[in-house]
C-alpha cells in the first residue's frame, strides 16, 4: 500500500521506514510505498511548491495555472480537475493539504509531542503516536452511520484527527487550522445539471483512459458501470489501436450479468470482454481464515470484508489481464440516486399534490402505502435536524430498536439495525453524544458552518451527501485493498467535479417519470448509443450472500465465540450470537448445510462480521506502519493501545 506523510515543526518525528523524500527541510513531505510515476507530480514557482498525489487528469499547463491561482488563496480551483488525488502546497513555513469532496482522498493529522504530523492514512499516525482505538467513534459508525456528524473530525483512533471533506488543513509553525473551501452554491436546474454531469464524466473517464496503456472497466454493476465502459470505449476511438477490457463477474447464484454485458460489448468495436467465473469458493463469508491470516487492513472497516474471496479473485484476474487502470461504477447510486427522504423536501415546500403523487409511485414500487409515505414526509418536514437528533438519542437511551418502515426511510436520521446489538453502556454514551450534537447543531445553524454543502436544512439533500460520503469510505477501503494486489481501481462517479455536478440538482428534482437514472441518461445523450442501455441488467446477489452464510455457518459461529467487539464493550456477544443463530437457522437436508431465514436482513450481519475481521487485523498489526523495521515489533503498539 502507498501513502504520504509530512510534518510541520516536528523535528522529533523520524522519516517513515522505506520512505523517499519529496521535499525536505523543516516541513518535509515523504512518500511511502510503490508510487507510479504519473501519480507524483510536483510544480513550483519561487517559494511556492505544489505536489499533486494520485490520479489527476490535469495537463502540465493546467497545473501551472492552478499554482498561480493557489498563490491568491483560491483553493477550490485545485480540486476541480478530473481524477482522485491529494494536493499539498508549501510556501515558506506554511503548508496546506487538501483531499477531495467525497472523502475518498482523506487527510489525517496528529500531535506527536512537538508540532503537527499529517498523512493520507490514519493507521501510520496511530502507529507513530501509539494511539488506541476510539471505541465510541467505532461504535457510532456501526450503530449510527446516518449521522456522520457524530464522528466529524475523528478517525478510528484517539488523538488522530480526520479532515472533513470540503476542508483544507493549514499548518503554520507547527499549528494546525482547518479551513472550509467548499461553499454551498445555488442549485442547478435539470438541463444545467445534466450538461455539467456529462462534461465531468467525459473528462473523468477520458483522461484516465488516455493515460492508461491497458484500461479496464467493470461491467457487472448495471447502468452506471455500463455508461463508464461505453465512455471509455468512445475515448479510445480517436486514433488508437488499444481496446478497453470490460470485466464481468459471472455469479452462479445471480445469472444474467454476462449475457447483458456481452450485448453491450457487442455494440462497441473498442470493448473486449473478460468474464470471470465465480464458484462456491468465492461466495460471501468464504475464506474468512484467509482474511484473518494475510489481509493488510484499511484505515477503517468501510469495505465489506465478507466478500474478500470474490474481491481477491476479481483483482487477481484484472492484474493478470495486464489492466493498469480499472474503472468501476461504484458511487453512482449515491451521486445519481434519489433518497426517499426527498419526499420530506417536497413537503417542506408545501407541494402537497406533488408529494402525494410521488408517494403513490414509491408506494407501488416498494410495496408500501403511498398515503403512509406522504403522511410520514409531512411529519418529518415539520421536524428540524436537532429535534431529530434528540429523538434518536431517546432511541439509544432505550433498546436501540427502531421501526424499519417508511418512517426510517424518510427520517432525517435513524439507528442502524446493528444498534440493538450494542451494549447498554455504549448506547448510553452514544445517546449523550447525540444530545450534545443536537445542541451544537442549533447553535451552528446560522453560522459559517452552514456554508458547508453537507450541512443542509432539508432531509433529502442531506441524505444525498451522507450517501456520497459513505460510498467514498467504502471505495477508499477497496482501493487500499486493491493496491496490495497491484491494481489501480478508480471510481469516477466519486470525483469532485462529478459529485459537484450530480448534487447540484436538488434531491427532489432527480426523480422523474422518464425512466431510471434520468439525469445520467440526459447527461450522456449523444455521447454513447442510447439503445445500448436498454438491455442493462443488474444482478441481485442476495441469494449468493444467503448461500455463503449457510455454507460458512460454522466459521461464523467460531468467529463470534469470543469476539473483540464484545471484549471492547462495543457489542453484546450474546445478542450477536443469537441473531446469527436466527439468521442461519437449523440444519437443512442438503449435505448438512444450514437453512437461512429469508426474512432477516443480511446487511447488519455483514457489517458486524467485517468489523470483527478488521479489529482482529488491527490487533495483530496487519496494518500500514510508520516504523516497520524488524525491531519495532509489528502489531505491539496498536494492539497494546487497543487492548
UniProtKB/TrEMBL annotation:
GO molecular function: asparagine synthase (glutamine-hydrolyzing) activity
InterPro entries: Asn_synthase, Ntn_hydrolases_N, Rossmann-like_a/b/a_fold
Gene3D superfamilies (UniProt xref): Glutamine Phosphoribosylpyrophosphate, subunit 1, domain 1, HUPs
Pfam family, one: Asn_synthase
Asparagine synthetase domain: residues covered: 198-591
Any single biological process term in GO: asparagine biosynthetic process
Record's protein name: Asparagine synthetase domain-containing protein
Organism encoding this protein: Embleya scabrispora
Lineage: Bacteria, Bacillati, Actinomycetota, Actinomycetes, Kitasatosporales
Amino acid at each position: 500500500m502507498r501513502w504520504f506523510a509530512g510534518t510541520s515543526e516536528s523535528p522529533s518525528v523520524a522519516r517513515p521506514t522505506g520512505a523517499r523524500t519529496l521535499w525536505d527541510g523543516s516541513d518535509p513531505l515523504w512518500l511511502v510505498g510503490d508510487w507510479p510515476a504519473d501519480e507524483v507530480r510536483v510544480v513550483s514557482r519561487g517559494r511556492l511548491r505544489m505536489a499533486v498525489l494520485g490520479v489527476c487528469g490535469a495537463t502540465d499547463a493546467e497545473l501551472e495555472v492552478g499554482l498561480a491561482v493557489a498563490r491568491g488563496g483560491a483553493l477550490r480551483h485545485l480540486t476541480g480537475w478530473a481524477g482522485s488525488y491529494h494536493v499539498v502546497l508549501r510556501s515558506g513555513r506554511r503548508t496546506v493539504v487538501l483531499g477531495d469532496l467525497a472523502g475518498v482522498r482523506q487527510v489525517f493529522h496528529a500531535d506527536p509531542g512537538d508540532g503537527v504530523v499529517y498523512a493520507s492514512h490514519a493507521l501510520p499516525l496511530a502507529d507513530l503516536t501509539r494511539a488506541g482505538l476510539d471505541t465510541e467513534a467505532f461504535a457510532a459508525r456501526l450503530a449510527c452511520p446516518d449521522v456522520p456528524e457524530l464522528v466529524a473530525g475523528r478517525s478510528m483512533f484517539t488523538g488522530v484527527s480526520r479532515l472533513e471533506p470540503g476542508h483544507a488543513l493549514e499548518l503554520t509553525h507547527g499549528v494546525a487550522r482547518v479551513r472550509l473551501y467548499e461553499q454551498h452554491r445555488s442549485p442547478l436546474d435539470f438541463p444545467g445539471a445534466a450538461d455539467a454531469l456529462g462534461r465531468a464524466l467525459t473528462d473523468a473517464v477520458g483522461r484516465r483512459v488516455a493515460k492508461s496503456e491497458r484500461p479496464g472497466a467493470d461491467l457487472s454493476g448495471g447502468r452506471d458501470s455500463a455508461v463508464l465502459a461505453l465512455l471509455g470505449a468512445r475515448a479510445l476511438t480517436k486514433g488508437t489501436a488499444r481496446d478497453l477490457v470490460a470485466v464481468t463477474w459471472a455469479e452462479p447464484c445471480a445469472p444474467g450479468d454476462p449475457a447483458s454485458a456481452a450485448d453491450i460489448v457487442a455494440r462497441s468495436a473498442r470493448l473486449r470482454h473478460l468474464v470471470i467465473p465465480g464458484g462456491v469458493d468465492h461466495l460471501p463469508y468464504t475464506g474468512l481464515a484467509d482474511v484473518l491470516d494475510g489481509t493488510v487492513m484499511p484505515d477503517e472497516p468501510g469495505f465489506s470484508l465478507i466478500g474478500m474471496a470474490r474481491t481477491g479473485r476479481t483483482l487477481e484476474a484484472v492484474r493478470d489481464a495486464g489492466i493498469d487502470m480499472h474503472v468501476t461504477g461504484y458511487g453512482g447510486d449515491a451521486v445519481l440516486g434519489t433518497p426517499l427522504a426527498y419526499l420530506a423536501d417536497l413537503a417542506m415546500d408545501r407541494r402537497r399534490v406533488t408529494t402525494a403523487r410521488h408517494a403513490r409511485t414509491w408506494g407501488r414500487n416498494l410495496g408500501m402505502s403511498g398515503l403512509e409515505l406522504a403522511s410520514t414526509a409531512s411529519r418529518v418536514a415539520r421536524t428540524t435536524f436537532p429535534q431529530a437528533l434528540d429523538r434518536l438519542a431517546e432511541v439509544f437511551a432505550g433498546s436501540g430498536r427502531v421501526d424499519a418502515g417508511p418512517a426510517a426511510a424518510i427520517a432525517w436520521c435513524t439507528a442502524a439495525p446493528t444498534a440493538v446489538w450494542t451494549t447498554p453502556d455504549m448506547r448510553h454514551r452514544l445517546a449523550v453524544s447525540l444530545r450534545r450534537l443536537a445542541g451544537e447543531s442549533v447553535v451552528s445553524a446560522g453560522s459559517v458552518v452552514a456554508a458547508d454543502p453537507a450541512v443542509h436544512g432539508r432531509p433529502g439533500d442531506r441524505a444525498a451527501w451522507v450517501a456520497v460520503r459513505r460510498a467514498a469510505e467504502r471505495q477508499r477501503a477497496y482501493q487500499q485493498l486493491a493496491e496490495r494486489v497491484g491494481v489501480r481501481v478508480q471510481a469516477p462517479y466519486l470525483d469532485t467535479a462529478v459529485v459537484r455536478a450530480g448534487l447540484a440538482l436538488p434531491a427532489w428534482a432527480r426523480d422523474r417519470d422518464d425512466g431510471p437514472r434520468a439525469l445520467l441518461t440526459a447527461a450522456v445523450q449523444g455521447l454513447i448509443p442510447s439503445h445500448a442501455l436498454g438491455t442493462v441488467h443488474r444482478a441481485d446477489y442476495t441469494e449468493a450472500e444467503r448461500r455463503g452464510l449457510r455454507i460458512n455457518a460454522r466459521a461464523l459461529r467460531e468467529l463470534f465465540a469470543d469476539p473483540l467487539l464484545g471484549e471492547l464493550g462495543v457489542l453484546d456477544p450474546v445478542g450477536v450470537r443469537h441473531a446469527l443463530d436466527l439468521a442461519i437457522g437449523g440444519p437443512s437436508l442438503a449435505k448438512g448445510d444450514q437453512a437461512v431465514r429469508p426474512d432477516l436482513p443480511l446487511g447488519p450481519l455483514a457489517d458486524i462480521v467485517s468489523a470483527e475481521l478488521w479489529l482482529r487485523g488491527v490487533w495483530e498489526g496487519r496494518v500500514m506502519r510508520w516504523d516497520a523495521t524488524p525491531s519495532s515489533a509489528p502489531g505491539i503498539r496498536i494492539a497494546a493501545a487497543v487492548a
